[in-house]
Amino acid sequence: MDRSSIVEYYNKSRNAYKDAWGLEKYMQLNLGLWYKNTKNLAQAFENLNAEVAKRANAEEGDTLLDAGCGVGGTSIYMAKNHGFEAHGITLVPQQAADAHENAVLEKVSHLTDFQVMDYCNTSFEDEQFDVIVGIESICHAPSKKRFLTEAYRLLKPGGRLVLAENLQAKEKLTPTEYDQLYTYGFNGCKINSLDTENQYLQNLKKIGFREYECEDMTRHVIPSVRRLRRFYYPAWLYNQYRALIGKPFGPTELANTRMCYYLYTGIKNGLWSYGLIRAVK
Questions:
Q1: Mind giving me the DSSP string for 186-237?
Q2: Structural domain contains residue 230
Q3: Contact between 128 and 154 (Cβ < 8 Å)
């Protein structure tokens, strides 16, 4: 998936994220984590950020790289709650602008910086960061190993890498399973490949990380995936209405709508999972 396709997706789906996912209020573009006492999406987002901070061994003054930062939600959380000096990077200029505005509103602009940059090929110096996080963003990389290699270069000795990631749950897929997972599912958000847990762990080992683990959190994202399925039905009807009045949506919007249906199918059929990956340089 090329860079321009990813930028187009996030630009065209910006309003959908505002309406369905509270983007302006919560500043998050992820599934969150739902526990027994979680009452709403805002709490699910808080849970995920807290889990990431815990695995990062967050300490005040740490330097953070938020790889694929979206509109800055996690960077801002880390700056506000843990005193991180947070640097967020994204391919999408509009997201970088939104992130800067959000940081000003949340009064942490002095602790944050947002730039348009490819997280697989950054301009940062070697060993610059104490912590690198990626929140459902590394799945966009054509080569996840290439990102992991860049993250290793950027981390200080003892630095921590924490990823909240969608994972392919099966080593091999049948043609039908491939269509469910990618053609009708993740391709809707411009993702055409996911690594398995084993691929991540093996690559972390090969690159040189001295500690690496992945905790399966799949059951804790299912409520959000169900929420997407529920949004599919009114979105599909709206798409039909637009077509009837001669103002149809384009392929990006239609694929995004279809994805809302098939992500639930895929996770229930055991085709993808959700993991929290932690590694130490």
A1: GGGGT------HHHHHHHHHHHT-SEEEEEE-GGGTHHHHHHHHHHHHHHHH
A2: no
A3: yes
Question: Using one digit for the tens of pLDDT, what is the confidence trace for 202-244?
Answer: 999 999 999 999 999 999 999 999 999 999 999 999 889 889 9
Q: What is the largest CA-CA distance in the chain?
A: 59
Domain range for 214 is 3-169+192-221+271-280
Q: How many domains does the chain have?
A: 1
Query: Could you give phi then psi for residue 166, rounded to 5 degrees?
Result: -75, 135
CATH label of the domain that carries residue 99: 3.40.50.150
Q: Residue 226: which of 23, 46, 41 has the closest Cα? A: 41
Give, as one character, the DSSP assignment of residue 34: -
pLDDT greater than 60 at residue 1:
no
Give domain status of residue 235, yes or no: no
- CA-based nearest residue to 154, from 171, 176, 131, 135: 131
- Taking the CA atoms of the chain, what radius of gyration do you get in angstroms? 18
pLDDT of 111 higher than 60: yes
User: What confidence tens digit (pLDDT) does each residue in 115-139 have?
Assistant: 999 999 999 999 999 999 999 999 9
In a domain, 231, yes or no: no
* DSSP string for residues in 83-119: --EEEEEES-HHHHHHHHHHHHHTT-GGGEEEEE--T
Sheet holding 155-168, edge to edge: 112-116, 85-90, 63-67, 129-135, 155-168, 272-280, 211-216
d(CA 162, CA 66): 10
